[in-house]
Amino acid sequence: MKMAIVLVSGGMDSCITAAMARAENDELAFLHISYGQRTEARERRAFNDIADHYGVEKRLDISIEHLAKIGGSSLTDDKIKVTEADLESKEVPTSYVPFRNANMLAIAVTWAEVIGANAIYIGAVAEDSSGYPDCRPEFYEAFQRTIDTGTKPDTRITIRTPIIELSKAEIVMKGIELDAPLHLTWSCYRSEEFACGTCDSCALRLKGFTQAGIMDPILYST
């Protein structure tokens, strides 16, 4: 029996990754990790809505507030402004949370060893990696080696990044193909009521829907 853990932030990419994991496994366990981000409550609501949609009973909602205490990101530090998106920039944006995905994967691996899951799905996208170093394929290849080295000899846990090579438009189309509940997702870094439309996450999301020729089902303030 194949069981997989899916890291579900509540955003579009993690929702579509969950839909793909559902098609490839017998049982899913959803993991949501809060780290003191501005839209924490809204993301948690999206996580639970997506879990309800897929009937996932194994859920783990964990807070790693040390990332907020450490700071260094506009998502966790109110003194740092969430900048307007610049999709042409190759600079690391203020919304980058230092080494966040490694912290999340470490928790997922711990849970996987305990419940006997043999895969961890994460909705990383290489198109984002020009700004977010922990979205690059080579990061996940390196972390896979860490898992293989640092777990029990009989443990077999594989990191799955099924959308990492897709463009945002292709991700949207995959979501439509799988009938993923995109209307339940939340991607905005700034707001919990209406998506701002101009932060990095909103801009990338809107770019994908626009290029796919499909209307985004969530509400925007702009």
Task: Please tag this protein with its features.
five-stranded parallel beta sheet; alpha/beta; 222 residues; Rossmann fold; 5 strands
- What is the succession of H and E elements? EHEHEHHEHEHH
What is the helix content? 25-40%
CATH class: Alpha Beta
Give the name of the CATH superfamily: HUPs
Count of the domains: 1
Overall 3D shape: globular
| Rg calc | 16 Å
What does the model show?
This protein is α/β, with parallel strands linked by helices and 222 residues long. It has one domain: Rossmann fold. It is built from seven helices and five strands; from the N terminus they run βαβαβααβαβαα. It has helices at 12-24, 40-54, 66-70, 100-115, 137-150, 168-177, 200-212; strands at 3-7, 27-34, 58-63, 119-121, 158-160. A five-stranded parallel β-sheet has the order 3-2-1-4-5, sandwiched between helices. β4 (119-121), α5 (137-150) and β5 (158-160) form a beta-alpha-beta unit. α1 packs across α6 (168-177) and α6 (168-177) packs across α7 (200-212). The model has no long low-confidence stretch (mean pLDDT 95).
